[in-house]
Amino acid sequence: MMDATLAKRHAIFAGFVLASALIFWKTWMAVIQYSLRNESASHILIIPAVTLCLLFLERKQIFRQSFPSLGPGLAVVVGAIAIFWLATRLSDTGKGRLSLEVLALVFLWIGGFVSCYGLKVARAALFPLLFLLLMVPWPNVILDRVILWLQEGSTDITYAIFKALGVPVFRSGFVLTVPGVSIEVASECSGIRSSMALLITCLLAAHIYLRTRWKMILFVLLVIPLSIVKNGIRIATLTLLSVYVNPDFLRGSLHREGGFVFFFLALAMMFPVLRLLEKVEKKVPGASTDYESQTHSNTFVDGV
Predict the structure, then answer these.
(1) Which residue from 188, 171, 190, 168 is spatially nearest to 179, judged by alpha carbons?
(2) Domain boundary at 104, 123, 138, which?
(3) What are the φ/ψ torsions at residue 234 (nearest 5 degrees)?
(4) Nearest one of 181, 114, 122, 150 to 40, comparing CA atoms
(5) Domain enclosing residue 60, as ranges
(6) What is the pTM of this model?
(7) Are 67 and 118 in contact (CB under 8 A)?
(8) What is the pLDDT of residues 139-171, one digit of tens each?
(9) Residues 111 and 257 reside in one and the same domain
(10) Number of domains the chain is built from
(11) Are residue 93 and residue 222 in the same domain, yes or no?
(12) pLDDT above 90 covers what percent of the chain?
């Protein structure tokens, strides 16, 4: 049965979040529209729901010692308001204003959380709280660089696959020519959406199944090369199918909607790595840090 004091704090924090959403409703509407229009931001709307689920699933570990910390919490709230004020001074060029506004909203929620529950609880809930930062849209200057980098990497991997398979190929920038067809690895083919989905999935897996920080970081960093390899395999597969099976593969549903197939392929490639890191941790005594032992328990892990 939930403690009455804790239930009251839950109600206060829920009211705080609702009030902030109403006050900053223009920011909410802008980020919703941006998420629906841009595949690089399609994950944004699920982030608050995932954070809420994490807080609920780990509630016994997170809310064990709840004491309000108004001073630190209000300091974060004031910082959030300052960030929002700075955002209002900017033009909307490059979506930098929207990024700052959402960042301010995230810090506002974190400040409210600290005020209601205290620093110890915030420390125990560090991952769910920081996970909210994935809501922040990337400014165009950063997003364009990431997409360009994914394009270059995907083109390199696709070219390497063709070479390894003995397929005659000529490369000119992002254009690859094989017998019968020329393809361009455009920005739309960068795989940014599936890469973000893979990053989010691996972040959650590392949080749930791993304990040692360096293993968590290593596992998540592997997403970067794997995203490029996965996208290169996708492009090479579709190209070869169009050449040797049916040209419609470059225009059909597998091209437009088949990203999830290669996403699950990437997950299948990451799963043995996760299991290996998990087994190594079990063999090493004292692998968990103090923070990790506070935020994880065998009961929770066994119930996942």
Answers:
(1) 168
(2) 138
(3) -60, -50
(4) 150
(5) 4-138
(6) 0.83
(7) yes
(8) 888 888 999 999 999 999 999 999 999 999 999
(9) no
(10) 2
(11) no
(12) 57
